[in-house]
Design a protein that fits this description.
4-stranded antiparallel β-sheet, mainly beta
């Protein structure tokens, strides 16, 4: 896939380099993602032309649009692990977009926001002062952990350290109902 020029996205045959299809988009592409049947393109928003900030879901074989969703902010990251598709924008907002319809299901914003890990059931975001664990389906904040403690994500869990204690918060299923000592109360933790 190639952006060709500012307002085109094209699929190239990997063996011949021949253009297989070309789709017109509203601005320069800032992010890409792929699934077996679709290409996702997130475009830059231009305040000068009041265009861009659009998520495109295109048929991978033909380039025809399944949908477009304009959010009016440059799209820097797209996660297609499952529906809803998650996009992170230049305005530190995460949007969850229904993969079939393109409808925005929920959004979440913080002063500075970066995607940590996305699983089938949970999403981890790093905000200005905290880590957030959100339910991917409905945006429920499952857990909010202070950044001042060391942390990492791996093997489907968020690990946080406080002194000699390490707590693991599962990201593949809902956490247990007991809140951890280092987190603001939400839905729970597993202590190791």
């Amino acid at each position: 896939f190639d952006t060709g020029d500012q307002n085109n996205l094209q699929a190239l045959d990997r063996d011949t380099g021949r253009t297989m299809w070309k789709a017109t988009i509203d601005q320069i592409t800032k992010s890409f993602a792929f699934t077996d049947d679709a290409v996702y393109s997130g475009t830059r928003y231009s305040s000068v032309s009041s265009s861009g900030g659009t998520l495109y879901r295109l048929n991978r074989s033909t380039g025809s649009a399944y949908y477009t969703r304009n959010v009016g902010e440059s799209i820097y990251y797209i996660d297609t692990t499952m529906s809803p598709v998650l996009i992170r924008t230049s305005e530190n907002t995460i949007y969850a977009v229904d993969d079939a319809t393109g409808r925005v299901e929920w959004s979440f914003a913080d002063e500075t926001l970066f995607m940590g890990t996305a699983t089938y059931s949970s999403v981890v975001f790093s905000g200005a002062d905290d880590w957030y664990v959100l339910d991917r389906g409905d945006r429920t904040v499952e857990l909010q952990v202070d950044h001042s403690n060391p942390y990492t994500t791996c093997d489907g869990a968020l690990f946080c350290a406080e002194g000699s204690t390490v707590e693991a918060y599962p990201l593949t299923t809902r956490p247990a109902p007991t809140p951890p000592s280092t987190a603001r109360p939400r839905r729970g933790r597993t202590r190791t």
